[in-house]
Write a structure and sequence with these properties.
Four copies of one chain form a homotetramer. Helices cover about 30% and strands about 20% of the residues of chain A. The first copy, chain A, is built from 13 helices and 14 strands. The first copy, chain A, has a seven-stranded parallel sheet with strand order 3-2-1-4-5-7-6, with helices on both faces. In chain A, strands 9-10-8-11-14-13-12 form a seven-stranded mixed sheet. In chain A, about 60% of the residues are buried. Chains in contact: A-B, A-C, A-D, B-C, B-D, C-D.
Chain lengths: ~350, ~350, ~350, ~350
Amino acid sequence: MNEVKVGIIGASGYTGQELVRLLLQHPHAEINAVTSQSYTGKKFSEVFPSFTGALDLNFASNDRLAGIADECDLLFFALPHMLAAEAVDDTLLDKTKVIDLSADFRLKDPSQYDTWYQATHPRPAMLNKAVYGLPEWRRTEIASARLVANPGCYATCTILSLLPLTGAQLLHEPLIVDAKSGVSGAGRAADIATAFSECNESLKAYKVASHRHTPEIEQELSSFASTPLRLTFTPHLVPMNRGILVTAYCELDKSVALEDVFHIYDQKYANEPFVKVLPSATPETRWVKGSNSCQIGLTVDERTRRLIVVGVIDNLIKGASGQAVQNMNIMFGLPETTGLAQLAVLP
Amino acid sequence: MNEVKVGIIGASGYTGQELVRLLLQHPHAEINAVTSQSYTGKKFSEVFPSFTGALDLNFASNDRLAGIADECDLLFFALPHMLAAEAVDDTLLDKTKVIDLSADFRLKDPSQYDTWYQATHPRPAMLNKAVYGLPEWRRTEIASARLVANPGCYATCTILSLLPLTGAQLLHEPLIVDAKSGVSGAGRAADIATAFSECNESLKAYKVASHRHTPEIEQELSSFASTPLRLTFTPHLVPMNRGILVTAYCELDKSVALEDVFHIYDQKYANEPFVKVLPSATPETRWVKGSNSCQIGLTVDERTRRLIVVGVIDNLIKGASGQAVQNMNIMFGLPETTGLAQLAVLP
Amino acid sequence: MNEVKVGIIGASGYTGQELVRLLLQHPHAEINAVTSQSYTGKKFSEVFPSFTGALDLNFASNDRLAGIADECDLLFFALPHMLAAEAVDDTLLDKTKVIDLSADFRLKDPSQYDTWYQATHPRPAMLNKAVYGLPEWRRTEIASARLVANPGCYATCTILSLLPLTGAQLLHEPLIVDAKSGVSGAGRAADIATAFSECNESLKAYKVASHRHTPEIEQELSSFASTPLRLTFTPHLVPMNRGILVTAYCELDKSVALEDVFHIYDQKYANEPFVKVLPSATPETRWVKGSNSCQIGLTVDERTRRLIVVGVIDNLIKGASGQAVQNMNIMFGLPETTGLAQLAVLP
Amino acid sequence: MNEVKVGIIGASGYTGQELVRLLLQHPHAEINAVTSQSYTGKKFSEVFPSFTGALDLNFASNDRLAGIADECDLLFFALPHMLAAEAVDDTLLDKTKVIDLSADFRLKDPSQYDTWYQATHPRPAMLNKAVYGLPEWRRTEIASARLVANPGCYATCTILSLLPLTGAQLLHEPLIVDAKSGVSGAGRAADIATAFSECNESLKAYKVASHRHTPEIEQELSSFASTPLRLTFTPHLVPMNRGILVTAYCELDKSVALEDVFHIYDQKYANEPFVKVLPSATPETRWVKGSNSCQIGLTVDERTRRLIVVGVIDNLIKGASGQAVQNMNIMFGLPETTGLAQLAVLP
């Protein structure tokens, strides 16, 4: 089998580094280029010594994009929001496939970027060419896409946790999603808000009812439910490096029992390699840390007739770079689990 | 002013230790006895070297309770559930006042102990003699009580965060409380579930829809709302020592604006020394760590017309031992903030 | 007793915040001014919400120094290195006493600043007017000083751990000090090196054999030993907020037993309120977290005839702001423990 | 190539779990049995849900050892000390090869077990049949061994960090090793000493000058130096899950420069797949977390003519289970890196 030649545009953030790590261990990928504005010209393994002996590339400048595209079958973009939107056009897509890890191609309605990102999307016409890259729900579209919008970390966990309910017409408002993330979700940056002594031994809610993953969650839930759905979404910052846990609350129709709900989830996910519905446990983030898995637990509060779905992922893997590699496998006809068989690393 | 002579029955857990710490720094308290079954006869400061030079007492056996009661004006009980229920009777209360930090006297309806604690309460007649010791809401009753049931940590934070809504008839179902606690809330014990490497770098929900603080929260909300209220309560374990953060979700009547809600909370709490309603921030647990404060932040999700209340406390102080000292101050006619002026210790 | 009117020049770092916290709880101090360049004009308690309701001051600009000095009996400087050296001259000291928490007045030999700080000291003549503010060893000088150089955090812990040996002529080379600090020791700054996800779950040595606290340690050890002493000093960064632990290694003369060493330490420190020599335990940093204490443990490795001294402090209290308040108490004739009786907060 | 059929005797501790994880991802190993006393009969993946879908075995009882040995080419023992010493005899070794992760076969001199383990070794005659399994130094012996004693975690890191000096006769007393470990090194157990709230936000030295890895370090250093060597060894417990960092101090002969030392290390390790000598950085534990690597940094303190070697490993991988798999590869003629190519997982 031929190697997939890849470039990673923006390889110095956490999702970029994680792509490098996963792709170096992928049997059919070959990293041709890594870029970074801040580290241009520096050796990757000197900037990130955990890669000593594993990668012998220097960071290229982001300005070399066109040249890199010529040499690659696939580019991963891991840039701040609205930079990929500028860079990815039909000319680029003629040369190479693209998986974008930012939000730039996730929303179908361009006006949502004005509302949630305070930015006018520079290429709204591209939005309909992009496929929302959640393999468990859009596998076929991904297979034939040239541009995949890799979902947000919170969005991945929330959507995987709730979408099976649509099949049984059980997903309806009110919908409340209380989400918690480790600090790496905030990206790799010199920022007082994510300084060790400011985050450690503390917990906070942030962007209450205003987090940018809200519209992509609503877009996908509404699309599969075939009806507009709104939710209240509250993210929290947890003093740990990795992991997302989503606690989702849905009102349940009277006649539905826990075993019915479990059956619905099991039917959907039983053959999915990366989603496990736990029959009798509530998942912990450490059970998926370092792996591309999503684990889901289900509880019915009989007193209030409410379903509580708890979903966990590793925000940097299934919530970002692992899912991107999963999308790559699909786009290039590789077995979907190729290079992604890592088990959770615990403790 | 005379000293209040106190004994701490069960002083080797985290709430017991914290009582000792706070009472040693209290200008009108004198610790006469500390007990522990596991450490009987040992010097307190050798078991807990942070107290070196500060306390010159040995642990007495719990069996010495009657004798200790004779010498004390007040006993704090910090024992596992159902031990205080056995020990506290009218005879004891004739000798000494009691503040119990367990759940044994919190619920008015004895059948709730069967339901939630899988235990038959041994002295149901005492339940109506006990006052639920949440000073901001039951100050007068506490002042004249001989037996105070110190509220649970989650319950304190949840009730303080929601009760002001009752004054304006704004508290009604559906009610969802998503709560998060540091690990010290699980107590001081050799337990694999709270071992460092099992909790650190992980997050989990636990006792989903079945946590024992649920009935005391419902009891107090229902009491002040003058109507039965049920809620879904989901606790989570966060890898940090101290802190509780409660995110509570309530449907909001159409006409109510955020400023109305803020006004309601401000009216209730403006003069409370230990509750602060933040005008423009969402509280973080570190802002109250080491203090007896509760901080509350309010957000209205205009898209879904839902109120999101975020409350934080230090689970060992306002959620346990600090509140117990606050209750002591009230019961003995001391200014309520005596010995409790500590500001949060951060980072 | 009159209040000591104080100003805190540079109150937005961790040592500045900690000074504010301790001084607000000090019965004889009154905070007249807090300054900050980045937050000038902002309300202190809005920048640091843990002080809500406790301090009603806005940050002044550092440029207001002269005016602030007029209104204060004492200024604490908590600025980056070489800023106090510029600002503190005889004119200022005529108006007010000064305790400087930076390194600017700690070293007697101006050339050491060139060597270790890569900076020429702007006022070398002031160095001999300053007293090295380690109360347990320079109490009398501090009492009459107008300018006190508050020791470095590592230096405090190392010097307290080793100096008693000088009395018995037991301190001699080779001397190795392996030190470990929590992350707050690096200060409050937006810096990728102290970002949560870069420090958490990791440990590193840094500035190996080149840390700037080395010369002040050598200065004090040499001064009391009356002979030049050099040591190898290796600091490490530990994923916790607070705490310093120093492990010091000294060769031991053949005839000296552990009990002899213990006796030497005990004689020196038995009456010190803030230094405890543990008779039978090795101290942990949590035993002093939140307090102004230093705890010391002693071990003799009989196999190699080597003494191992383990000392712990809270780097922000005994290692910085608490010690500064201790110095203030001495300088103003207050009992040395005033405002510093806090016991360790654990867990 | 045939599969190596393995059994893991004691698979419920952290090293046992980690063996399972690594061997499941090993292309030429097949796990035939996992044992545990506490979980006998339970499904492995129900006890450890991170293995859901990955391993379909139940825990067998340790009593089934003989039967398991019949079916396996190799047994890994990961039991508490002195249990493998009882179980492993010539009869067993006739059936199967053994890699023991405890200390039971590491020391050549049986009397050392009395001194350091307070236990009389039950089969002293086996000690000389065992090979100390540090591949970088005893590769040939390991290849032909039937019984390999997998080194201790601290010992691995210390010996790898110091042994190259023996080649140039530069290793001599005084030798001081200040070592630091994450909490998983203490094993998986319900123990108050490793409870989250007792370890988190704290640092301590423990077993000062009395840790059991001391004699195996001295045995190996002395063996390669061809002269008896003693060291002072002080371990510390760091609030993180994984990682060991060793800071070793050696007096340096006058004429030796840093580049000489670097050359010595580089010559020894340049072709080692799992040991990297960093040319210009001091290693951090996160750079090897999740990998089988050891990274080493070198500094010369010119002021005191002392060499400071900093070495890091992941205590559960290169310090235990990864090294055991490396030994397995050698014992069965597989390429030494088989199944061990994982890069560090960070953050």
